[in-house]
Specification:
mainly alpha
């Protein structure tokens, strides 16, 4: 097809040629695109992701329900023991020479932590920093009680700095810290 034949086929043009246009004008010159319906593969993937999200939500819901039920049972058990202890001590007057009952430390109840993935080892690559930092923040949020101490946070972060510039920083930081202690 010759240039003239193409011009006739295309019809008259009212817009300017693109070399004189800026990016905004070029964008406006493009024909509008209609949104395409998702392909069957995209729809299937979306359905798969939605199903997995719902499964995980149900799993977490069931886990939290179990933890709550166990905690309530333990509270009920402790309340029953407390009532029994207070009722038996109020019915019998303690003897003046009787030693006080031994104090028992409350039983520590370990909560079940969320199974979070530990951060990937960090080598100082700036492209990986954001993901590394987000993984650390998730772990800090998950166990706020443990990470309330800044030293624990620092030790935790340093334990994942195992390669490249991050390992060099870790070594330097540890040497500086040890030098201050001496």
């Amino acid at each position: 097809m010759t240039t003239a034949a193409f011009g006739e086929w295309r019809g008259p043009r009212e817009e300017r040629d693109t070399p004189e246009m800026g990016m905004g004008e070029l964008w406006d010159a493009l024909p509008p695109l209609e949104p395409q319906p998702p392909t069957s593969q995209e729809a299937g993937l979306e359905q798969y992701v939605q199903t997995r999200i719902e499964q995980e939500q149900k799993r977490l819901h069931d886990l939290y329900e179990t933890q709550l039920r166990e905690a309530k049972e333990e509270v009920d058990e402790l309340l029953a023991k407390l009532r029994l202890a207070t009722s038996s001590s109020s019915t019998s007057a303690p003897a003046a020479s009787a030693p006080p009952p031994p104090t028992t430390q409350p039983k520590r109840v370990d909560r079940t932590r969320t199974a979070l993935q530990k951060p990937e080892n960090f080598d100082g690559d700036r492209k990986k920093y954001k993901a590394f930092r987000e993984a650390l923040m998730l772990n800090f949020e998950d166990d706020e009680e443990y990470f309330a101490d800044e030293r624990r946070k620092i030790a935790y972060v340093l334990s994942f700095m195992t390669g490249g510039a991050a390992a060099a920083f870790r070594t330097e930081w540890m040497e500086t810290k040890m030098a201050r202690r001496m």
